[in-house]
Specification:
homodimer; alpha/beta; Rossmann fold; 2 domains; six-stranded parallel β-sheet; three-stranded mixed β-sheet; 53% helix; globular
Chain lengths: 286, 286
């Protein structure tokens, strides 16, 4: 059904999609494009893509399915550009970390008579560092792949078939497909993905200032410290767009955590501390 | 040099010490005691101890070196009791997570004419769950083992030799020995060990309340969520004593993090956010 795939943005996610498609048995062509030529070369040499496009538009025009795998604002920009050059026999999908704006843009620019189909997607997979060199055919194995398709999409028969086929390839790459409303998606990931990231960033930043120069630091910090600060290495370039496009939900989650930390701080010597540990224990058991 | 070891408290750490000593080639006797008979039985069956004592005092009296491996307050209680029953040819050491009060008690109850030697110790190793059944001969491999010996200790020649010998066994178990002042220890671990724990507890607790019943939760949360909440499973019984014996340093660290989170929350759409990511990136690179 899908014979030609375009991967626009061969960073960690884009390269991993190419490798995972091949590992799952995809026999068609995979054309790739990347803002930096070096990243495209690495993806090409890894086998994630088998040709390099000169620009995103020509990549999309050659493909049945185009995967936009760039940060959120770049995704929104590319959606507006790409839709003008392809028709109803194409599907565009994405891997952006916030979905409300992208899903709205999907309704605005796609999913109408004469337009390509658009399927907003978000694999819950990644690493704390990016780049084609970290591409991994198993990145999506066991992970959720969220879709936030808006109701009322107008698609050609071919467009609808490509949507179904892409969902099947996502399953073949080892992911579990989950359908969510876009607003609910952004609310939920604010808690389970964005809050953990900003906590790790805040913890790493405050530790850098307070004990970053302690000579014993490297030796004394154990697995707990490494784990709790691993995401401190995450790149601003990706998280800026997430902070800008999910600001209110992230701010609400951060404020709730600030209040919880203050509550713990004020109760280090009272029985309230036990309640917090019990709630935390329960969260981990469930 | 050391022929008979007593392990008082055969939980995760005590059982692991017994297993690690055996793995490192210790040929002497290891007697164990545990508050719950079941924990002692598990340690015995695992080979971590080769006999079970009826009480902590008789275990210590039979041994050259007694390792107190119980929470901080229980350690302080046992120090006061045990010292009355053993003399200068004994060494008592511990694995408590805060060291200022224990080190002071060591000066008060031990390290004087006619008293046993006491060496305050803290292996930076553990798991988010306790119990003899999780005992692990490799738990201390690659970990720091901190000692906060107070200056001016009065020890018999035999006591001094046991201190040196125990330090060698700690190295043989795979740990890196680091000597620290006790006050500096408690300050440093407030940042690199206690703060990460209380953050994980707060995050797990707040998530339990806000999204604990979301049907998509289990699937959507990825590695980042699992890692950042793993320590949420930690038992209150151990952390209560830490919170009580290092309150001021922990409160200061928590307050610094609360302020940092608020700063990030207020700057989700300003260039300040980049600075926080860059500081966090630097902490992880160093």
């Amino acid at each position: 059904m899908i014979e030609r795939v375009a991967i626009v943005g061969t960073g960690l996610l884009g390269t991993s999609v190419g490798l995972a498609l091949r590992a799952a048995g995809f026999k068609g062509s995979i054309i790739g494009w990347n803002r930096s030529a070096e990243g495209a070369q690495i993806a090409f040499k890894s086998g994630a893509i088998d040709s390099i496009a000169s620009d995103p538009i020509s990549a999309a025009r050659e493909a049945d399915v185009t995967i936009l795998s760039v940060p959120v604002y770049a995704t929104l920009d590319l959606m507006a550009q790409v839709t003008m050059h392809i028709g109803g026999d194409h599907l565009v999908t994405d891997v952006g970390s916030t979905k409300l704006q992208i899903t709205k843009a999907g309704t605005q620019y796609f999913n109408q008579v004469g337009c390509a189909a658009f399927l907003p997607g978000h694999p819950m997979a990644g690493k704390e560092r990016g780049g084609a060199e970290l591409g991994d055919a198993n990145l999506f194995r066991g992970a959720a792949w969220l879709f936030t398709d808006a109701p009322g999409a107008v698609r050609t028969q071919r467009g609808g078939e490509l949507v179904l086929s892409w969902r099947e390839w996502v399953v073949a790459m080892g992911s579990k497909v989950i359908d969510l409303d876009a607003a609910r998606h952004d609310e939920l990931v604010a808690w389970v993905s964005h809050l953990p990231q900003f906590v790790a960033t805040a913890l790493s930043s405050v530790l850098a200032e307070r004990v970053g120069d302690a000579p014993e630091l490297k030796d004394v910090g154990g697995r707990a410290l490494r784990e709790m600060t691993r995401l401190g290495a995450s790149p601003f370039s990706m998280w800026r767009d997430i902070a800008h496009t999910n600001t209110d939900a992230i701010a609400a989650a951060l404020e709730a955590l600030e209040q919880r930390l203050a509550h713990i701080r004020e109760n280090l010597r009272t029985p309230e501390l036990r309640d917090e540990f019990e709630k935390a224990n329960r969260f981990r058991r469930e």
